[in-house]
Amino acid sequence: MLEALGIDPGVELVYRALLGRPSVTAAVLAEQLGRPDETIAEALGGLVASGLANRTPAGEYVAAPPAVALGALITERRDGLRVAEQALAGLAEEHRATVAGHDIGALIEVVSGVDPIRHRFQQVQQAARTELRMFVTAPFVAVPMGENTAETAAITRGTRVRVLLERSVLEEPSATEEIADSLQTGVELRVADHLPVKLVLADADLALVSLVAGPEGDPGAVLLQRSGLVDALAALFESLWRQAYPLDLSNLAVPVADPSDASAPNGLERQILGLLLAGLSDQAVASQLDLSLRTVQRVLRRLQDLAGVNSRMQLGWYAARHDWA
Asked: CATH says 108-247 is which class?
């Protein structure tokens, strides 16, 4: 739990044991924890050195208050990260100045194989400071749907995350639940009919672009540093984003409907309509909501009757005008 502060799990165990006692000797702790005396002595020495414990004149050890001791470590680590971020910006500018006008190969890295691509995928997301933009297409190669922890971490540190999904992604198993989870964490999602590549953009600095699998079947990708190519990919993203259909929780989760209002769709009907407007087929909607195809089609016929229209295109227009989805 405290490893992020550089505290070994074994040392943390000793610290927690100290917290449960006013004061204690190394021998008593060793007996209590069932660890060798020398191991406990070494851990206690580390705790004293880091300010997490004090040794009394009688040779006993007392834990320092967590709010004080750990708070100081957290502040120190945060300040260190801030300095590292400033150093990163300077080093990145220095590197760009060095490669500018020189070998174009310095701006491009070809990545082959699932594990290397997964590693670079995580790194590019972690590098984003202000905005992370992605094209997501099916099938998933390096990181399965719902397992991209770096996306959540980006949201947590205040990075804006926009994800453009290819329509086929919505037909993946459990897609509705995963998309709803992303929306709830603050990810902005839209749907496009087709996307040309898988893409990750970290600010205006880095781009990871998928490649067609090679002769051996291994997937490939290209990592691009700040350049005209990255700018072009950013422009492509913005163009497709403007044309795409926005997703929100009302498209995916069953909203609360007024049962007394027979002139408006109920919760399930709104959910079905929202998924269809997002581009799913009747069968895909039925699979996502665990309904029969006949049920979905019956709901659509009822909605057309309710709206007084004769086609699905008219139904979509009516739904948009009357806030049905």
From this structure: alpha beta
